[in-house]
Amino acid sequence: MKDTAIKVGVVTDQSGPLSVMGIANANVAKMVINDINANGGILGRHVELVLEDSATTDSVAEARAAKLVERDKVDVVLGGIYSSTRQAIKRAAVEKAGKLYIYPEQYEGQECHPLIFCTGPVPAQQLEPTIPWLMRQTGAKKFYLPSADYIWPHIMNKKVRELVTANGGEIVGEEYFPMDHADYGKTVEEIMSSGAEVVFNTTVPPGVGPFLEQLHNAGFRKRGGYLMCTYFEENILPLFPAEHVNGLYGCLDYYQSVSDPFSKQLLARYNQLNPGGAKFTGGSAATGMYRGLKLWQAAVIEAGSLKQDDVIKALDHARIAEGPGGPASMVPRQHHVRLNMYVAQVANGTLNVVKSLGAFEPKECVQGVS
Is there a shared CATH topology between the 2-121+259-338 domain and the 128-229 domain? Predict the structure, then answer.
């Protein structure tokens, strides 16, 4: 009977500026749920995906999450890319409805709610191994931090400052701009005159395009400067002229050039199902969506029921032996995952893994400890 179906709610940006990412998330959710059902469902029950478009608008995301929990009576909610979207979904699904919520995107960390689990990388994983590696690899000591003015860049930059100074370097500039800021002339002049060797960029669309263009035109890379931006991945890369991003370093839990057999098999299956469409990538939260659904499935199977308290207890230590980029395990009481991390560099329009860093702990807050 239809009312015995397990319902999974996904809120993601299938329209608006983040649609290339949100569509990838929707595609992953469909793929995973279809595979689960093809293998007999969960606990012998069919799994129904209830997919909602948040249209890259936080108020829409909040309304769609409310619909999922109030009208559709879903058993779990997943989705959201921007941190502000996570907060919108959290208000409706978690704070008002008390529903389990899994957030799949890389982000600034510090989400510490007993009903929220996060399945993307956080600063300890993206930066703690990468900044020292980059400094050793390049010999660079001077960093400049051009940034969008919201929570993620502020927290990332605080961590970068700690790591750079601990490794004998210095921050020679740190600036914040509105997301749609377009005139970076003064900042680029400062970068060039300060002797900055690394630009650690956290400007975001739409402002990042003008910034990268102006930095390129000033000759920063040509004079030997290094560019790093942790969120660059295969959906974002084609949005920019190749010469503006050539040589850029990134660090994520997965790139399409990761070579382990399961990652290659998963990518081939996704591409077969979604030819020419939004790509399966790390920075687009597609990897976090995959592992979020699979970790939740493992937790429900261990719990033996959909009773939320039992599922949360099992999810607290859930693990998957295979996933994009490698295995993943929820760190008990942290509600974040231990992940393999990779450094990639842009060359000829592609992101190539140049360093497999290994698995790293999220080092997030411990639940129940203030």
Answer: yes
